[in-house]
User: Fold this.
Amino acid sequence: MRRLGLYNPRNCSIQVSLSPGTRLGAYEVVALLGAGGMGEVYRARDTKLGREVALKILPELFAGDAERLARFSREAQVLASLNHPNIAAIYGIEDTDGVRALVLELVDGPTLADRLARGAIPLDEALPIARQIADALECAHEQGIVHRDLKPANIKVRDDGTVKVLDFGLAKFAEATVPAAVASLTQSPTITTPAMTAAGMILGTAAYMSPEQAKGRPADKRSDIWAFGCVVYEMLTGTRTFDGEDVGDTLAAILRSEPDWTRLRVPRPLEKLVQRSLVKDSRHRLQAIGDARLELEELAMRADSVRDELPVSPPVRRRVALWLGVAMLFGAGAGVTGWILRTPVHYQAIYRATLLTPGNFTAVQSGRLALSPDGKQIAFAALDAMGHQYIWLRRLDQSTAHIVPGSEAGVGPFWSPDSTQLAFVAAGKLKKVAVTGGAPLVLANAIPGVPGSWNSEDVILFSPASSGPIHRVSAAGGAATPVTRLDESGGETGHRLPVFLPDGRRFLYVATHFTRPAGVFLASLTDPTPRRVGDITSNVAYGSNALLFFRGETLVAQLFDPDTATFKRAPTVLADQVQVNLGGRVGSFTISQRGQLAYQAGSVFDRRLVIVDRAGHEDRVIAPRGNINDVQVSPEGRLAALSTSFDPSAQGRDIWLLDLRAQGQRRFTVGLNTSSPIWAPDASTILFSSDRDGHFDLYSKRVDPPVPEVRVFSDQADKYPLDWSKTGEILFARVAPEGGTTEICLLSPRPGAKPITLTEVPLLIATAKFSPDGRFVAYTAGTGSTTEVYVFTRSGTQKQQVSINGGSTPRWSRDGKELFFVSQQQLMTVAYEPNGSSMAPPKPLFKVRFAGGIRDPYDVMPDGQHFVLQDAFDQSEPITLLTNWPLLMQRHNLTPP
Assistant:
């Protein structure tokens, strides 16, 4: 057989190219007819039956998978049952020398795409073509077969006017070539390669893709009806229904825009049919293509009269409307107001689109996304493939995202009002950067992870620390000054999460305190006296006269009057089970000024605790799913202490104790918003942090019997315990009150001892661990995106870098001969000599799935052969884009007055 392997750049695969005269069984190749995502098509001669056929050579993706081939064969048999004059027949499958081909009916004549290249098709010619297409689709739908890739290039029109629809069901075959993990993407037309679809790319003829296909949802017969509407619109107008410079632009038009109905100069019944076919919500779309066929047949029978039903042209409409308006102004004609000028229907639809991961980052961090005010871009904090965190920027009309320069370890992005600049916090600094490029400008110290707000006068509101008032700073830089005052008599400890209202003067913020639930308040730049809005514990957003906030993990919107600081009517549910970071009460959502809402689905409760061996094989699950953080195994390995919550309605976290043998659990602290448990060397006591007094202080509490906790150390900074040595010394992280740095401190057990600073790191999630003999300290240091693990002696005379290509969260084995850490989403191990004189190169053990922002996501069991670790399910959750969210309120009779 004469054949060549050629690389096809359209689908990144090797295609088989056959030369004329090549034989595939009884078929002799005559000439190449064309090539596409599903293979190459040749004209061939059937030497047995003496007829010409078309051979479609299947891509190499089918070659090595018997299951896919078997499925392909079964579906080809179903398609072969479609005996209809307007459907190109499938004769069989040929398999010769590893080359597999579909044997198809050869249809001569131009495609509908060729005909449309000359312009719009006259009405009397377009009607029978549309009717035959509808007839073919109806036959297939009755057999349960969906085309999925209907377009002019897949429709041929013979010289006698007979229409043949090609490639019926072949888009469905592509599904067999894609792994289950990305199967939802295969509903898109002419998907080509799994490698590209897994990276979030939607390839093929996007202009005829239905909204549900663009969102990655399964296609059904209503998707074919959408494509049918696109084809008919293009026939009648000579222009595509939805178009753009690239696939991204086209998909954006499909999801956000309406066709230009003024181009559709056809009789009203046909206009209405096309409009019903192109409703974005498939539930309200034309439900059966047979209804379209009947309508087209009726129009064809009235061909002589339909020309009289053509609508008035837009210029005439405008002139008539003008004269009617003049007549109404002067009272000429009492019945004028009853006149209704027929205008094209523009459907406003609510739809949700999934912003798929483009493949160059691995996990969007919960609660850290921001739509630009103009609704064209979205910024978010995410990890790259190496596990380093950056701020990423993506245009909604494109399929890829890029890193914002200078955003290493960045969190909490928010936009300037004109959508040209982006602000964020990185390494304890508030920064801004132009989206067109350039180096970021440092504006002030700021608490990591808490977004601010930016008004039209270039005033930025932000939180410089975890406690204290909200500050303002100029977007040009300068001194930061407070704009709110704490109500200390009422127990307030901090203000955070500011949101400007549209006037740029008033703003909303969340107050934190512990005598009663946190609440949202309304204040002003010119009047610091706040007004209480309600017992809302999460971040809020304001748009379309409504306030958006959380009830548990449900995002709701409720009409809100800023003048009276009161709500109206009942709230409307916008999305269920949206990710909410319980520690900071920051929900993962954002809105634009154009009625768009973006949110991250899933739940921080989609985490579990498992025990695995050194190969990463799961031994058993030891805790139900919950918001699991800060894992610490007791010295003898019987219990594990967690900072967690198994209740989505909880206001904060508590310490829980899990029995690793009996697999029972009990709550150790109640209602204290506690974190970072650390075991005493004899397992009798647990050290932890609690912010009951406005900042996180160090407390201790005995395990058995459980007695009231005792405050160990307090000052005005936030503190988190890191380790407790056998000699009673405590390592803890101290976040500077003004932000910017974190100190790793040592506290002696002597009464009245003052902490000693061992080192400073520009990290909020600082980690440090004593070696078992207490001589060394392993810790994480770096600039956030380039952190490494180091070991230094207590005297500070010796310091060694342990990790090579990034590292964090070090843990010692109980014998001190091995040091574990995380690098590039892998658990690594290093053989370490007790005297610290030599160290082997790091070796990977297994991949891990940790949620971001956790200080202690794993711990080592006493045997050194097993690990207790947090297993996160929410790391690959995509961002969901909801358009026209205010219409949801209107549908619930909550239209703003």
